[in-house]
Design a protein that fits this description.
Elements lengths: L1 H37 L4 E4 L4 E4 L5 H11 L8 E4 L2 H8 L12 E5 L16 E5 L3 H10 L3 E5 L16 H6 L2 E2 L13 E5 L5 E3 L2
Parallel strand pairs: 1-7, 3-5, 4-8
Antiparallel strand pairs: 1-2, 2-6, 3-6, 4-5, 8-9
Helix pairs in contact: 1-4
């Protein structure tokens, strides 16, 4: 009977460990990205639209590294992600009276605070998206600041629809690659609207 009890405890422990390991994959990836962000690094990650390259949206040096990785002219702005309307208001000073949460929607706001000037347009405008992706939301919530989200491709080439299509050049130059959704097909970028100074929305994409 003691032997049976021992094996039951052993089996219970193994099942618990398996459950914890599967549960922790998500949390481990969040911690790894947070460490990368805190170190001023750049990471490759699945977003609410397509695979993206990200970093701290307030860190000039990290943003410069993304420009180099993408071989992109530094006058072309990047999109940043926020995890709540409250965070959005802190950056833009407003919450648009427009549906920005039912589907991935990037709004180009006339002005923004907090964000690095290196991701803004020449006129000071900022492309910002309220993300509904669980992983992105949790990273931004724990980091406490918005993150950059730009497509994981060399400038001028087609964006990758899945992880395997991302060039090795990009993979070897980022500081960290998130090990989630690597087999998922991700084909649809966000829709984009421009918010005019008089409060109207103009569709760009």
């Amino acid at each position: 009977m003691k032997i049976m009890g021992f094996y039951k405890k052993l089996l219970k422990k193994k099942l618990l460990n398996v459950k914890m390991e599967s549960k922790n994959i998500f949390d481990i990836e969040i911690e790894n990205v947070l460490q990368t962000l805190n170190n001023g690094g750049v990471f490759l990650y699945p977003t609410d639209t397509i695979w993206g390259i990200g970093c701290d949206a307030t860190n000039d040096k990290a943003i410069e590294k993304i420009y180099k990785i993408k071989q992109r002219a530094d006058h072309k702005a990047f999109i940043s992600l926020v995890n709540s309307k409250q965070q959005l208001k802190q950056i833009t000073g407003l919450i648009p009276k427009f549906d920005i949460s039912s589907q991935p929607t990037t709004i180009i706001y006339p002005q923004a605070k907090i964000l690095s000037k290196k991701i803004l347009g020449k006129d000071g405008s900022a492309g910002i998206r309220l993300t509904n992706d669980k992983f992105c939301k949790e990273v931004i919530k724990k980091f406490g600041k918005p993150i950059v989200s730009t497509s994981a491709n060399i400038s001028g080439t087609k964006h990758a629809n899945k992880f395997s299509e991302i060039s090795q050049e990009i993979k070897k130059n980022v500081d960290y690659i998130v090990n989630l959704c690597t087999n998922k097909l991700m084909t649809k970028p966000s829709r984009i609207f421009f918010l005019t100074k008089d409060g109207n929305f103009q569709k760009i994409r």
